Amino acid sequence: MNKLKTLAGETALYGLGSMLPRMLNFLLVPLHTINTFSRAEYGEITKLLSIVAFVNVVYMFGMETAFFRFATRPGADPKRVFNLAQTGVLLISIPLSIVFYVFAPAIASALGIGAHPEFIQWLTVIMLIDATVAIPFAQLRLQKRPILFASAKLVNVGVLMALNYYFLKLNFDPNVGIGYVFLANLLANALYILFFIKTLAQFRPAFDKELTPAMLKYAYPVMLTGVAGMTNEMFSRLTLDWWLPENFYGTISNEDALGVFGASYKYAVFMNLGIQAFRYAAEPFFFSHATSKNSPELFAKVNHFFTIAGCFVLLGVAINLDLLQYLIGSEFRIGLTIVPILLLAYLCLGIYYNMSIWFKLTDRTYMGTLITVFGAVLTIAANYFLIPLYGYTGSSYAALICYASMMGVCYLLGQKYHPIPYKLGSELIYAILAFVLIWVSSMIPAVVQWMATMAHLALMALFLLVVYLKERSYWRAAA
């Protein structure tokens, strides 16, 4: 139980450093969608940032996970492993950045923003900064320094919000337009370099004829997994306006539909960032306790309580969309029906991340690649068939099909190679309970907002009561 409490505490602190900043970043959505950018312009932002997410995975090359794995091995020198990992990241990201920067005009033209090659250059520098500080951030996680981690993230998002407000409300130039979003990110991320200036100054490029190839061999499948994972994550946002039939939504253009989809997708942040905060704490936790004789039972308990928390988030967001809808512009709200589907999809993804520990601990990272590639194929196929039929709702179901299938395959393979006694039955019951309560909520007439909100809170309290009654014996046994 003490181990679980430690993990919960570190997750909360990492939440301050990752979830809270991005939740605050979510507050940029009303700034961007209410009387600032049109649906088509917001769709352009969505597409460009989706491309950046893909390329960022290649920049990182899976070296964060390799750093954790090799720095925690018995007899390892974490400082040397840090230098090796940082060297690998920079040797990949710097040449790529030079290519993107030099060919920015051609890339901008291919993406339909030929008048603004500087957008590509700004995004390139953002990716290079992110790559440069990725291993230093991983080092903070390994050293269990979540307060420093959180401080850097919070300062970054504070500056980012201030710059967005300044550029978009106080010093807006239509000729720059959506470029202000990228420029604000560039300036805010540049502060990371100052934050890690001492760490970066102590860095020395390194190569080890045994460790370097071993780390690259370990990291390469992780990178491929990341690319496939980004296909699952971002593919629909890149192809929606391609595969959506013209006039599917009547007077709303395909570009507008992408903007609506992108804004509605932001609500998945409530689940996705909780997962991210948990991963920051859980990855080193899993590696640190991998050799413990009771690690399978411990990992099962972690997943069990993670799933309960995820179901509660799903319920809380889905039944309170009547209030949360005001965080985006009124012309974007028609897409909010997809939010519960996306929340469930990301809950499945979070469970998959928990279950994926088996192939990391058994050095079978290639299995993760195969599973994620399988998910990417499902994503592409499901989007291809569902978008023409159901529009962005079809894209949302594609995400659910992908992540649920990955979760199922990962569980089945994990039970073969590294069995863990997950409590799948009760976890499924909680998911069903959450959707039953969402349905009950939809039956409650919202005559007066405060009364509807109180009813929603009562449903959330009912969920927690069921959890307490069902889990108190298991919690005591875990203690």
Number of domains: 1
| Gap from first CA to last CA | 5 Å
Oligomer: single chain
In percent, how much strand structure appears in the residues?
under 5%
Radius of gyration: 22 Å
User: Given the C-alpha coordinates, what overall shape results?
Assistant: globular
> How many helical elements?
21
Number of strands: 0
Poorly predicted runs of 5 or more residues: none
Would you mind describing this structure in some detail?
This protein has one domain. The chain is built from 21 helices and no strands. It has helices at 2-26, 28-33, 39-60, 63-71, 78-102, 104-110, 117-142, 146-170, 179-195, 197-202, 211-243, 254-265, 269-288, 295-318, 321-324, 339-355, 357-361, 365-390, 392-417, 424-443, 449-478. Helix 1 runs antiparallel to helix 13, helix 4 runs antiparallel to helix 11 and helix 20 (424-443) runs antiparallel to helix 21 (449-478). The model has no long low-confidence stretch (mean pLDDT 84).
Please name the defining characteristics of this protein.
single chain; 479 residues; mainly alpha; 21 helices; globular
Give a summary of the structure in a few sentences.
The chain is an all-alpha fold and 479 residues long. It is built from 21 helices and no strands.
Explain the layout of strands and helices.
Blueprint: H1 2-26, H2 28-33, H3 39-60, H4 63-71, H5 78-102, H6 104-110, H7 117-142, H8 146-170, H9 179-195, H10 197-202, H11 211-243, H12 254-265, H13 269-288, H14 295-318, H15 321-324, H16 339-355, H17 357-361, H18 365-390, H19 392-417, H20 424-443, H21 449-478
